[in-house]
């Protein structure tokens, strides 16, 4: 499979394959990461376009993980995803003029996720206490 992947990476066929995979397995953050890295490393556009495409994929991955219903899986996956997204931005986005804004955006998204989880847990506890 790796050879096939390398053969089609960066092409519209490769994008279609990844889109199909992330739709079928939305909680598989390793697939989302591989998709973003492939888009960045093997895309045929200029650096800034490839960087933005990869960022968009990471953003979609965050949204996809936010939609998971299993909270244990959700927390584990999104924690790993935020670490990978931040590492990607630090490794590849540093030449971009808006690099510091993207670093802050990722941190803000992570903070927002934590606050939402805390709020959800508190409201869930109130419901249990009321019973």
From TrEMBL:
InterPro entries reported in the protein's UniProt record: Rrp5, TPR-like_helical_dom_sf
GO biological process per UniProt: rRNA processing
GO MF entries: RNA binding
Designated name of the protein: S1 RNA binding domain-containing protein
GO cellular component terms attached to this protein's record: small-subunit processome
Domain of life: Eukaryota
Record-linked PANTHER family: PROGRAMMED CELL DEATH PROTEIN 11 PRE-RRNA PROCESSING PROTEIN RRP5, PROTEIN RRP5 HOMOLOG
Gene3D superfamilies: Tetratricopeptide repeat domain (1.25.40.10)
């Amino acid at each position: 499979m790796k050879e096939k992947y390398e053969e089609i990476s960066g092409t519209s066929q490769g994008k279609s394959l990844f889109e199909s995979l992330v739709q079928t397995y939305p909680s598989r953050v390793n697939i989302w990461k591989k998709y973003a890295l492939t888009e960045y490393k093997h895309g045929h556009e200029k650096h800034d376009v490839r960087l933005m495409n990869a960022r968009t994929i990471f953003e979609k991955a965050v949204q996809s993980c936010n939609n998971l219903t299993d909270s244990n899986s959700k927390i584990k996956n999104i924690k790993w995803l935020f670490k990978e997204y931040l590492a990607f931005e630090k490794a590849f986005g540093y030449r971009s003029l808006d690099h510091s804004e993207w670093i802050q955006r990722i941190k803000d998204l992570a903070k927002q996720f934590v606050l939402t989880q805390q709020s959800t847990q508190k409201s869930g506890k109130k419901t249990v206490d009321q019973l």
